[in-house]
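dumping the sequnces here before i forget
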Amino acid sequence: MNLVDILDEKLIKVQLIGKTKDEILDELVRTLALGKDLNKHEFEKVLLAVKNREELGSTGIGKGICIPHAQSDVFDKISLVVGVSKEPIDFDSPDNMKSRLFFLVVAPVSAASAHVEVLAAIARSCSSSVFRRMLEKCKSSREVIQLFSE
Amino acid sequence: MAVPFKNILVYIDGSEESISAMMYGILLAKQNNALLAAMYVVNTKALADLVKVGIFLDLEKNEYQRDLQKDAERYLKHSQKLAKKKEVVVSCITEEGSAHKIVRDYIKANDVDLLVIGGVSAIRSRRDELNSETDRMLRTVPCPVMLVREDEDLWESFE
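..and the predicted 3d for all of it:
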């Protein structure tokens, strides 16, 4: 699976405004809710799933990257939100580095295979420091999609 | 290499393309009176990598592995149903590991003379070029490979 195939301009936010971990998670899920037209109940369900996962252990993986993720049957296929924050956010990452790059991945239980593939693809893309720097500099959703397409 | 083919393997990964590949494999096996096997590989390598980089916890890895195993059962059961419609017998195999390696080793060990797969992904970025399991299979297996595109007529013939 290619990340480019599931990236959606409506689900990319290059100027996240949250200042704390909770605010960022809320903002990412809100972006997803708006892009996918979720109702209040669905939004809360997804947010709870994401927060429950975060409670088990931080999804900050180091090098300024966070990949919050959850399974939720609110969706019938996998969804990806990409967020870039101008200000680094403390996400309890194992390297104690604050994070600016966020990838929220939510998928139904029936899409476990796609879920694993997408998470692996994100990890591969972000293993490059050049890619990370370029993503941090993106000024629009279109630039983010362009970067992933290169 | 036998022509017509006598020992066909279809790789199933749950995608619609791989189901099309299964249908094609069934029709080919019937036409050639060939042995037919369908394989689903639970990608435990990807799961282990996700734990290694800190994206998954061990608990999650186990949950997702169970989900993937259920996927394997579901898709292989579906493959059997499709095969039954055309009165073809299919051996269903579930394996764990790195898909392209498992398929390659199976082909060598079982004298498979045709691998049928559901197409390779469009290369949308240089980063993706070598990471698709079906791409890697195409490059490394020692037998002919048939890539099946989606075909509505094919699906209709199984309804």
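Chain B has a mean pLDDT of 90.
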